């Protein structure tokens, strides 16, 4: 994850513009409110459809919400060419609206920003070791351990599913399931079926993962502009296509089956599409 951020930051600077790779952060709280990042702010879509800014002037790619509806994210910034330094901190917006830093300002990027967590609060992250990566876990008490001996090639994004108790990993162009026992199973490996519509490389072709109560796995195939659903038998089906100028980068499924898809455009805009079970579409743009 750290490598991914640095590469994109270098691309942004070389072009002299403020651009960024899409965020994947979109979460739903227990009241049905949806929160998502557009890399400039964190937005809230209330359960009755009202759009507002929940956290202003925050550059975060991921979001996490706990069982008590506390929302977590990070903030990254660049100090400019004079110092050529990056900064980062992790924040929390409590369920009663209090904003606080939970990891203070650090220089550079955090190796473990604690935003991929299981229901018990344990965090998961990747660690570069030579020509491969390992998956590590930190308990609520601060104990670090290795999740599996499996060597991963290039972990892009991760999602812990409370529905199946498995960790799902985008490893280059593959989706891998990591069980609590440390078994690693490839559940999808043919996600690049066409050339990228945004001319992105293979390592940026696949983005966010999410799951539903039926243990289906959804993946935003950013490079092809599609959302694919992988069922419990491993069958992958395209269930949504963004169309011209847009591509999906993340998503979530509400308990009632409503599908939320976050999309990113060639002009670095973010929008969220709500698809009800009866097929009705509603688009939200900040």
Automatic annotation (TrEMBL):
Write down the InterPro entries for this protein, in alphabetical order.
Answer: 6-blade_b-propeller_TolB-like
- Protein name according to UniProt: SMP-30/Gluconolactonase/LRE-like region domain-containing protein
């Amino acid at each position: 994850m750290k490598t991914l951020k640095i590469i994109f930051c270098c691309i942004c600077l070389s072009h002299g513009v403020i651009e960024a790779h899409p965020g994947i952060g979109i979460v739903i709280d227990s009241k049905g409110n949806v929160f998502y990042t557009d890399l400039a702010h964190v937005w809230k879509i209330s359960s009755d459809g009202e759009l507002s800014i929940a956290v202003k002037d925050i550059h975060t790619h991921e979001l996490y919400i706990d069982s008590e509806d506390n929302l977590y994210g990070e903030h990254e910034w660049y100090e400019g060419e004079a110092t050529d330094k990056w900064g980062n901190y992790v924040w929390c917006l409590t369920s009663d609206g209090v904003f606080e830093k939970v990891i203070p300002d650090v220089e550079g990027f955090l190796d473990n920003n604690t935003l991929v967590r299981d229901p018990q609060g344990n965090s998961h992250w990747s660690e570069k070791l030579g020509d491969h990566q390992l998956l590590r876990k930190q308990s609520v008490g601060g104990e670090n351990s290795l999740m599996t001996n499996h060597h991963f090639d290039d972990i892009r994004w991760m999602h812990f599913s409370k529905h199946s108790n498995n960790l799902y990993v985008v490893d280059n162009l593959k989706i891998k399931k990591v069980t609590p026992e440390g078994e690693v199973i490839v559940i999808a490996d043919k996600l690049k079926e066409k050339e990228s519509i945004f001319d992105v490389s293979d390592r940026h072709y696949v983005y966010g993962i999410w799951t539903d109560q039926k243990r289906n796995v959804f993946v935003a195939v950013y490079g092809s502009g599609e959302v694919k659903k992988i069922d419990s038998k491993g069958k992958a089906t395209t269930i949504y296509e963004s169309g011209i100028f847009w591509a999906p980068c993340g998503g979530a499924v509400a308990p009632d089956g409503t599908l939320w898809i976050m999309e990113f455009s060639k002009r670095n805009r973010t929008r969220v599409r709500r698809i009800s079970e009866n097929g009705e579409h509603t688009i939200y743009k900040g």
